[in-house]
Amino acid sequence: MELNQYLEMFIEESKEHLQACSEHLLELEKNPDDLTIVGEIFRSAHTLKGMAATMGYEDLADLTHKMENILDAIRNGKIKVTAEILDVVFESVDHLEEMVFHIADGGDGKRNVQATVEKLKRIEAGESSVAVAEENISQQEAVAKSTAILNEKAPITAADLKLSYDDFEKTVILQSSEQDFNAYEITIALREDCLLKAARVFMVFEILEKNGDVIKSSPTVDKLEEEQFDSEFHVAFISRESSEDLHKMLMKVSEVESVVVNEIHQEVFVTKTTAIDIPMPVSEEVAPSANDASVPAEKQKTVSNTNSKSSAHATSKTIRVNIERLDILMNLFEELAIDRGRLLSIASEVNHGELNETVERMSRTMGDLQNIVLTMRMVPVETVFNRFPKMVRQLSRDLNKKIELNIVGAETELDRTVIDEIGDPLVHLIRNSVDHGIESPEVRRSKGKPEEGTVELRAYHSGNYVFIEIEDDGAGINRDKVLAKALSKGIVTHEQSLTMTDKQINELILASGFSTADVISDVSGRGVGLDVVKTTIESLGGNISIESTRNVGSVFSIQLPLTLSIISVMLVEIEKEIYAIPLSSIIETSIIRTSDILNAHNQKVIDFRGKVVPLVFLEEIFGVPRDEKNDDGFHSVVIVRKGDKLAGLVVDSFIGQQEIVLKSLGNYLTNIFAISGATILGNGQVALIVDCNALMK
């Protein structure tokens, strides 16, 4: 059976089952006695195991099988749910996710998960505490390490291997032993006070390459060259030299603290392979049956796993469509939309009754079709929000904080192109709220707050926009500290600071490289990544605002357009060129007198409703050539907004409002200043779309 054609379906369904496992594990943590939740996790794990075995991913199936054994024991009352056991199951799900993503990236899904497997085995064997099991493992590793140091010739077992090997690397090592080569795992530790680690690494590799072949290293060579390691690194090496000679040669390198050379015997890989590749109980359990979701994909009648009649009826109304097909459909519709504009233009010129009627009816049908096509591309933000509960759980444990994450409006839908980009900014903001927003339990108690902090993630529609808000009940933003840091970094001047509102001061944390963190944190730091958040959101045509009250909490609010494919614009004309300005950026249009234009700091400005608004002459920005200067004493101005900033775009005339199809400029015209794309109008003319955000830096 050719399995590659089912790979995409396998990856998507595996992600769904793992997401279901994560969600149910979080529920189980809150309700450890609810065995129905355990049953749900078991079913997802069982289905995943069957699919993995069918597709030939034995490592994935084996780890899932070990996890499934624990769940089955809990379900049958043999094991009681504890926080330690849940930690190990969460760890297993994390490894499974890594395997699936590795397969999605074209890999084989193999990962070194021996430590996790050992923990699962110990739990299954009835260990009362995983902590004891982990202590035993660490003791065994310590004994193994000391034995290896005392007796460098001692062969190592599979559990002692410091590196993980793929099939190709195993084959190389096995074949080398047949040709009288020795295979070694070498651990080199540099002195703690070593100043030139990269230079020492180079010297070590120079010696090794003169005496054999390096198979792999951990960390990788790139990271070693960039000194992205503490003081110890591991190398897999093939040579005819003895372990004693290699040890002596490597110890000659200055600032090397210790060298441990362990010989790898071919039995290590033979034993390890046998243990994984022949799991007889797994093979028997995953044998295809009529109702099992592990049946090969060509025999499945539904896309999702189904164990009940109600589920079967629900999934029979749903089909899974490759996103590339939706993109093709969208492109075809965009071409139709352009032709619709052209037909409307021709019909108005010809002014024929039947033609006008036909074109009008076709236009209405196209409008309905447009709504359907755009709806098909809409995806619930739930697909992004689902990853955060597990992330917040882990962060709260790492930071020794008590945090509850509430999600509201996960069913709110956004265009897929926006969904693809919004995940990373939300990760930054949530990590920021958890690390720097929510205080420690002791501090919260001293402030009269409950020990458990709350982070609320909500989404809702408003007009043609979707709003995503992250609210925490933490310490809020320290206004004075932010302003002092901004002044010291020269982000604002003293004169500017005197007139800034609290909201403007809060949003200074979005400036590039800005941070008020006293201690560098692995989790986050205000300003570290927040400038990237702002840039990403603005590139999607959205904006971000911050409201914060000291010791009460903060709200980060993101405004995003529903779709990026078809947008409403105001068409304007400069000489004979037509430009499109997105309606989402426009406040209003106005006709002003030339005499109303003032000069301030070498910048032409106008007084707009009591505010000083700078003018931007688009003909100068885009270098529009003019045959003759036409000054009739009036100017057409489009007032646009970016956050709290306003600007007036000066054009020759307004053409009117229109829905247009957004097209990229292609690979040859990249990074054109203040132009975000183009569109084809009904008369066949190309109009460039103005990027208002770029004009108001």
* Mean pLDDT rating: 79
Task: Give the helix level as a range of percent.
Answer: 40-55%
**Overall 3D form:** globular
Percent of residues in beta strands: 15-25%
Strand count, sense and barrel status of the largest sheet are:
6 strands, mixed
Tell me the Rg in angstroms: 32 Å
By helix and strand content, what is the structural category? alpha+beta
**Reading side by side through the largest sheet, how are the strands ordered?**
14-18-19-17-16-15
Question: What is the element layout, followed by pairings?
Answer:
Blueprint: H1 7-30, H2 35-55, H3 58-75, H4 83-104, H5 114-124, H6 130-150, H7 167-178, E1 182-190, H8 197-211, E2 212-218, H9 221-225, E3 232-239, H10 243-251, E4 256-263, H11 266-277, H12 280-285, H13 309-315, H14 323-350, H15 353-376, E5 378-380, H16 382-385, H17 388-398, E6 403-408, E7 413-415, H18 416-437, H19 441-446, E8 453-462, E9 465-472, H20 479-489, H21 494-499, H22 502-506, H23 530-539, E10 543-549, E11 553-561, E12 566-574, E13 577-582, E14 586-593, E15 598-600, E16 603-608, E17 611-617, H24 618-621, E18 634-642, E19 645-651, E20 653-661, E21 675-680, E22 686-690, H25 692-695
Parallel strand pairs: 6-8, 13-22, 17-19
Antiparallel strand pairs: 1-3, 1-4, 2-3, 5-7, 8-9, 9-11, 10-11, 12-13, 12-20, 14-18, 15-16, 16-17, 18-19, 21-22
Helix pairs in contact: 1-2, 1-4, 2-3, 3-4, 3-5, 4-5, 5-6, 14-15, 17-18, 18-23
